[in-house]
Design goal:
Elements lengths: L2 H7 L1 H6 L4 H10 L11 H18 L2 H43 L5 H27 L4 H7 L1 H27 L5 H24 L4 H15 L2
Helix pairs in contact: 4-5, 4-6, 5-6, 5-8, 8-10
């Protein structure tokens, strides 16, 4: 999957090995094995691997090469799950909700708001993660651990749900004819209250916040269709 990209990223190290063809072949072969993780969290893994491969090249110890492969295999699965839930399941919907709110206000800043909310965090994690991994080797995983991404994911999903409620209210005001609003204002407010209570019930039952987010979006589309 991503093995070619990973091998390409360590080519500078292979070039620094000079004429040691056996070690270069072993290095590239080791990193052409299956590798698949979230692309935004590959930087910390690449940094740690480079640190360990340099130490392996200096010592000439093949056992350290096996340790490098074990590190990759141990991190790619958990980092894939972390990245999917954090970036795809929380950060992107959060940025999208706020950009759509601005779009309904008929401002050209809507696409820029999405880019400014979404891009800086993942660029920082990718670059800083690589630096920390390269500087600390195996201990580079502490950088991701300290971020406590599962906790941040939950908080961002709560903010997304709140923003989606505001978006539904705003969309209703814009879509419904102004002449009809005074007559159905109470009904609309009761509907919003019902949706809030429905979300509260779902949280108590342990339903995923991502599922509730998409369900509220579908219900809003059906209401104002």
């Amino acid at each position: 999957m991503q093995n070619m990209g990973f091998a390409f990223s360590i080519l500078p190290l292979a070039k620094r090995m000079g004429g040691k063809r056996d070690r270069i072949a072993a290095l590239l072969t080791r990193h052409l094995q299956l590798f698949n993780t979230h692309p935004y969290l590959s930087g910390p893994i690449i940094g740690s691997v480079l640190h360990m491969e340099e130490a392996c090249a200096v010592s000439g110890n093949d056992e350290e090469g096996a340790a490098v492969a074990n590190l990759k295999n141990a991190l790619m699965g958990p980092y894939s799950a972390l990245g999917d839930s954090f970036f795809w399941g929380a950060m992107k919907p959060l940025a999208a909700v706020f950009s759509v709110v601005l779009a309904l206000q008929q401002t050209l800043l809507a696409p820029l708001a999405f880019l400014f909310l979404y891009n800086p965090p993942h660029i920082w994690i990718r670059s800083r993660g690589f630096v920390e991994g390269y500087r600390r080797g195996k201990e580079g995983i502490d950088f991701i651990r300290i971020l406590d991404m599962p906790k941040l994911t939950g908080r961002m999903r709560w903010v997304s749900l709140a923003g989606l409620g505001c978006l539904a209210a705003l969309a209703g005001r814009l879509i419904l004819p102004s002449s009809l609003v005074p007559h159905i204002d109470i009904i609309v407010k009761l509907l919003y209250l019902f949706l809030i209570l429905l979300c509260s019930w779902g949280i108590k039952r342990g339903i995923s916040q991502v599922k509730m987010l998409y369900c509220m979006f579908i219900i809003g589309c059906l209401i104002f269709l």
